[in-house]
Design brief:
654 residues; alpha+beta; Serine Threonine Protein Phosphatase 5, Tetratricopeptide repeat; 14-stranded antiparallel barrel; flat
Length: 654
């Protein structure tokens, strides 16, 4: 997407919204909506519009849900000032193509509040609480060429506010946008925009107040392999003036990070916020500390858990990028061997990945240079650590991972004799393992246990992908397994059909042709090519049509035309192309129509007699019945119109 057009369009939009903002300014209610959710965002001074990428996006910016590729639940407890507490539960579930859907509940409780009447006389303590339900959606636009790097999202929020025995209900929405810059000087820069709390407001005690509507524009920029994130938000609320939030997130190790932030709206203290994170991508805990001057301090603890099957559009590219960011993070922490191993693993599955190639060359160059003694000792310590890890893996027969450790060492120090020795021993062990697996595979094949043979052959190829005999034998085994699977599937199909066929034949022999037809059609839903079921289905339909035809013909001869029409219509359903049935059906239709016409004339005469006798209500009913029998009876139609007009005419005043 052309960045110049993106920024121009966004700027025009902000100007337009800003002009509306001034008109909406004024007092607001439900200020609990301004309480930040999640330890990370709060600790970063609430500069989180562009930095959010987890389930807490339901609060900060729903477009952030588009980053999720695993199910995630989030919990938060806020021990706020003055005895106020807040609890939040969020859940988000990504899908393959429709984006990520989320839902959550947030509850704010306030300790007993002293109540007074209109004369300032104490009336006892009252209870107050706010409960909000949130339903959100966010989606990546990666599949659209002109919108790659963009994510969009929206929330629907339902708020119930309670004060003593009075309560109010309000509805609002959030609209969010995220854009990640790719390439150029600002590669990785995230830009976020969100409008929050656009809704109905609340009415309590005869007074209506607006929600705290606000607009945010945020930026987040990762540095040093994503180990450091700098973020800032411009916030424009309708009930205040423009202010700035700023924050930073610094990750020291994979499981530990520190946060620092500044909130421009905090007039009670310095505005500084602090926090820490413990955990990894799957499970982490975040803590935020926010001072509020004389009112006390706020402590917020949140927990995030990711689980289940991975979903994401463009999975391969995203996974490679995530792995590369880990490699960059290792490099930024000075762990060159770990970074090198991560980058080479990426190149094993994506040899075209240019960034990983450049990173490996950079690390190899640094190892060759080793300009200072301190640097040389640092790098040698890393090599020694990986050598010791490789030895441990070798001792427990984890040969694949041990081989990876020693190969990484040799790539950086080609003359490392210990790594060479262990690689030779691993190769010898691999050869012995390959031979034993291949022999076991051939024994299983001879015994007819093709599944077991397949497993052994696959193990051979994991250890030695170049084993030609194993590859050829595996192809033969898979052909035999496919034949076995088809034979088993055919057997299961026959076993399912057998009792249905038996029941169908019993019904057919008992001349219960409709029940038999139902069973034959059930067989054909299992196997559309079953010739016997196809043949008997046709016979059953013909016999049902014949029975109905004979019954319809007899009813017509007896003058029972309604029954004749019903039976002949049923016969046509089962044999629609039979000309004899069609001919008789048309004849019955004509005779029934003639009978109805004559009956209509007779009923019309009765209606006329009732009219002349002055019984207008009976006359109207009979005229309407006459029309039902023959809609073309003009005399009956005129009589109905005349009687209806007379009935509906206004009565003269007494």
């Amino acid at each position: 997407m052309n960045r110049r057009h993106l920024w121009t369009g966004l700027g025009a939009f902000l100007l337009g919204v800003g002009s509306l903002w001034a008109k909406a300014s004024g007092s607001s209610t439900a200020n609990f909506l301004k309480l930040g959710v999640g330890g990370r965002g709060v600790a970063m001074g609430e500069a989180h519009t562009a930095a959010v990428d987890d389930v807490m996006s339901l609060y900060w910016n729903p477009a952030g849900l588009g980053y999720l590729y695993l199910n995630e639940v989030g919990f938060m407890h806020n021990n706020f000032v003055q005895g106020i507490s807040q609890d939040v539960f969020y859940y988000a579930r990504p899908t393959e193509t429709k984006g990520t859907f989320g839902a959550g509940v947030s509850m704010l409780r306030i300790n007993d509040i002293a109540g007074f009447d209109a004369s300032d006389i104490p009336t006892g303590n009252v209870q107050a609480s706010d409960t909000m339900l949130t339903f959100g959606w966010g989606k990546s636009m990666e599949q659209l060429v002109w919108f790659r790097g963009m994510r969009v999202g929206a929330n629907l929020k339902i708020l119930r506010k309670t004060l003593d025995r009075t309560s109010a209900l309000g509805y609002m929405t959030d609209l969010g946008l995220l854009y990640e810059t790719r390439g150029g000087w600002f590669h990785g820069l995230n830009t976020g925009f969100v409008i929050q709390n656009l809704g109905t407001g609340l009415s309590m005690g005869g007074q209506k107040s607006n929600f705290p509507l606000q607009m945010k524009l945020g930026f987040a920029y990762p540095m040093f392999g994503d180990n450091l994130v700098l973020a800032t938000d411009l916030v424009l609320p309708t009930d205040g003036s423009l202010y700035i939030n700023m924050g930073t997130d610094y990750r020291i190790w994979d499981i530990l990070a520190f946060r620092l932030g500044y909130r421009g709206s905090n007039d009670l203290d310095s505005g500084l916020t602090y926090g820490v994170r413990l955990g990894n991508e799957r499970l982490h805990m975040d803590y935020a500390f926010v001072p509020f001057g004389p009112f006390g301090d706020s402590h917020r603890v949140s927990l995030g858990v990711r689980f289940g099957k991975a979903f994401r559009e463009g999975k391969v590219a995203d996974q490679i990028q995530t792995a590369y960011m880990r490699a960059e993070a290792k490099y930024g922490q000075g762990l060159l061997v770990d970074a090198y191993m991560q980058a080479t693993q990426i190149l094993d599955v994506a040899p075209w990945h240019r960034a990983s190639k450049l990173l490996t060359k950079r690390i190899e160059s640094e190892f060759k240079a080793m300009e200072t003694e301190a640097r040389r000792q640092q790098l040698q310590a890393q090599v020694d650590e990986h050598y010791a890890r490789g030895e441990q893996l070798f001792q427990i027969d984890d040969l694949l991972h041990a081989k990876r450790e020693f190969e990484a060492i040799l790539a950086l120090q080609a003359d490392h004799m210990g790594a060479k020795t262990y690689l030779n021993r691993i190769e010898e062990r691999f050869k012995s393992i390959v031979d034993s697996f291949y022999e076991a595979a051939m024994r299983s094949f001879a015994a007819g246990d093709y599944k077991q043979s397949q497993e052994y052959l696959q193990r051979v190829l994991v250890v030695n992908p170049e084993h030609t005999e194993a590859r050829e034998q595996l192809a033969r085994v898979e052909i035999l397994l496919e034949k076995q699977a088809k034979a088993m599937e055919e057997q299961q199909r026959l076993e399912r059909i057998r009792p249905i066929r038996q029941a169908a034949m019993v019904f057919f022999e008992q001349k219960q042709y409709e029940e038999a037809l139902s069973k034959f059609e059930e067989i054909l839903t299992i196997d559309t090519t079953d010739q016997e079921a196809i043949r008997y289905r046709g016979i059953s339909r013909s016999l049902i049509a014949k029975e109905s035809y004979n019954a319809g013909l007899k009813a017509a001869q007896d003058g029972d035309f309604p029954k004749a029409r019903e039976q002949l219509k049923r016969a046509l359903h089962y044999d629609p192309d039979n000309p004899d049935i069609r001919k008789i059906y048309a004849s019955v239709e004509d005779r029934q129509h003639e009978k109805d016409r004559l009956e209509s004339q007779r009923v019309y005469r009765d209606a006329l007699d009732a009219f002349l006798a002055g019984d207008l209500e009976k006359s109207l009913l009979l005229a309407q019945k006459s029309l039902e029998l023959d809609s073309e009876n003009l005399e009956a139609k005129r009589l109905v119109e005349r009687l209806t007009q007379r009935r509906d005419a206004p009565k003269p005043a007494p």
